[in-house]
Design goal:
The strands form two sheets. A five-stranded mixed sheet has the order 2-8-7-4-5. Strands 1-3-6 form a three-stranded mixed sheet, with no helix packed on it. The longest helix has 25 residues, at 2-26. By secondary structure, it is an alpha/beta fold. The chain has five helices and eight strands; from the N terminus they run αβαβββαββββαα. It is globular and about 60 Å long. The chain is 34% helix and 18% strand. The protein starts with a helix and ends with a helix. The chain folds into two domains: 2-28 and 134-175; 32-130, Cupredoxins -  blue copper proteins (Immunoglobulin-like), CATH 2.60.40. It has helices spanning 2-26, 47-51, 78-83, 151-166, 168-175; strands at residues 32-34, 56-57, 61-65, 74-76, 91-92, 99-103, 109-113, 124-130. Bound molecules: 2-acetamido-2-deoxy-beta-D-glucopyranose (4 copies).
Length: 176
């Protein structure tokens, strides 16, 4: 009974660890941005200000949260973004729930506006999507010019090692 429990715990742990390591190796860490953060998608928010300093990478997501009875989410081209022309959207992301998810799966600048006149009040956002930065080449690394791009792995990898160290006995128990 004791042996059975030990092995179950160990193999569950091993599975979790394997997934974590595979996840890290794939270099994928998609971010879901709530547009406008706690303000959401609404009037009287400067979305240029919101997007400033953020990095949007291929595979990230935008999440628009708004009043479904008033606003909507339209992807338009640059010209129509600048002029707030809602009549020729590239893509209508409005689902009707007031909760719309947009996958950023192309490296380009995306332009979103709300129709129904709200664009004129500033309800528009341009998001420049970049390729993912290359994964860190080797482990003890220096962060070049303070770039935060490897921040995730710098935190997560030591954490994984700490967990492995913590449960090392279980691993020995699992393999022997
Ligand atoms: C929004 O912020 C940007 C960048 O700080 C600024 O250039 C722009 O004038 C602001 N727009 C409005 C409508 O206040
Ligand atoms: C955007 O689409 C309009 C037609 O709706 C077109 O006249 C305009 O040239 C396009 N602008 C760009 C930058 O593609
Ligand atoms: C966008 O799609 C929604 C849901 O299908 C629809 O109700 C709405 O009329 C569309 N808006 C535009 C501008 O095409
Ligand atoms: C990106 O996602 C959109 C919407 O899901 C889809 O229509 C389009 O084909 C995708 N493009 C690529 C390059 O995957």
């Amino acid at each position: 009974m004791e042996v059975w429990r030990r092995e179950t715990v160990s193999s569950t742990l091993l599975l979790v660890l394997t997934c974590t390591i595979l996840f890290l190796m794939s270099g994928v860490s998609a971010t879901r941005f709530i547009v406008g953060a706690n303000m959401g998608w609404t009037s009287n928010v400067n979305y240029t200000e919101w997007a400033k300093g953020k990095h949007f990478y291929l595979g990230d997501w935008l999440f628009f949260v708004y009043d479904r009875n008033q606003m909507n989410v339209l992807e338009v081209n640059k010209t129509n973004y600048e002029t707030c022309n809602e009549n020729h959207p590239i893509h209508n992301w409005t689902t009707g729930a007031g909760r719309d998810v947009v996958p950023l799966n192309v490296t380009k600048t995306y332009y979103f506006i709300s129709g129904k006149g709200f664009c004129y009040g500033g309800m528009k956002v341009a998001v420049h999507v970049e390729k993912l930065p290359p994964p860190p080449a080797s482990l003890p690394e220096k962060s070049k010019n303070g770039s935060p791009s490897n921040y995730g792995s710098q935190i997560v990898l030591p954490a994984v090692f700490a967990i492995v160290a913590l449960f090392w006995d279980n691993f020995i128990g699992f393999w022997y």
